Amino acid sequence: MINSAQERIFDTMVDTTRLYVSMKTYFTIRPTKSNPDKALVYLFITGDKKRERLFTELKISVKDWDKTNQKLFPSTKENQDVNLILENLNSKVTAAKTLFRLSEKRLTPALLKREITSNMPRVRFTAFFDMKLEEEKVMMASGSYQRYRSLWRKLVLFDDDVTFIDIDENWLDRFRKHHKNLGNLDTTISGNVAGIKKFLGLAAKDGIKLRLDLKTIDVGSTKGNRTSLMPFELKKCVNYYLSPYINESNQLILGYFLFSCMTGLRISDVQKLTRSNFMDNFITFVNTKTDIDQSISMNMTVRKIVNHCPLLFERKFADQHINDELKKIMKLLSINKHVTFHVGRHTFATSFLRAGGQVEKLQKLLGHSDIKQTMIYVHIVQADANKDIFLLDNLFE
User: Fold this and answer.
1) Rounded to whole angstroms, how far apart are CA atoms 249 and 42?
2) Which of 57, 121, 271, 294 could form a disulfide with 131 if both were Cys (CB 3.0 to 4.6 A apart)?
3) Whole-model pTM?
């Protein structure tokens, strides 16, 4: 059995700090019962008078096994590929030992085996993120869970193998620049960084040592510019929705969006609604964000939208698909704005105020706890009105 340089270093630290038991890892093979010329490859972990065995799921030819170096003779490409897998396992072992050492956590053979077989959640950030997200799922609103799941997918595509040791300000800057180049909005990127910071905080609570101080992470602004549709743009959408030329998919997606424009409901609430929630010209539901029972009157326009398409609130789409298709619909209608489903909520707010609604009543309809949130829409409408004053110049042209 050969001790690597990493193992010798760790053994020295063990003798000095008494933090861990002294552990050895090595590969060995066991011939199969059905064919003695073939063997299964195992990783053995020993220490503290205990031993763990991990099956690598590799089956090799016995004659190709180099017992001294614990790998295959590189005589074929297949053998070279197997050696790469073994090297990767060795790297995982070293990474796990490093993380536990830096976190001042006691590492045992059983814990090391668990780290390797569960994608090393105490080592790899994406593995920890995935594990923790599932643990927290029961406490999250469905919309929040989907947003974090979307962020996890972004992290996997960006740097699936990143370890907690690798994450520093430079890594975060690369994450920001990469997604900026992909066309993500600054507010979207800031929201993603806020999500990363949240899960790094959960890792720190679990005793995982981080390279950076979470207090120094500048998330940036996560508040968008509250894009909304002007009345003439909203009318364009309604006319297209009622048009006989619209296809079924576009009609459904636009119908959900227009429903939000007329009610101010978030996508998480709209997705939960069925036609059974509509009774006596009222919409009754439990607000996803506040968990409070709500009842909203349906005006004539809302009823017209709902009644026009029988499949509305019967057939549903994923949030991301709705947002992707909304962009295409807006392009088709020559509406040159970045429109997502949430623009419907902003459109409801500005339309309500333009129609003469009171800001205090709008606060209740939107479910804002602080009227300062609602006042932002007042400022938007006032800014639009100030622009219109220049229309008077046309009288003298």
Assistant:
1) 53
2) 121
3) 0.55
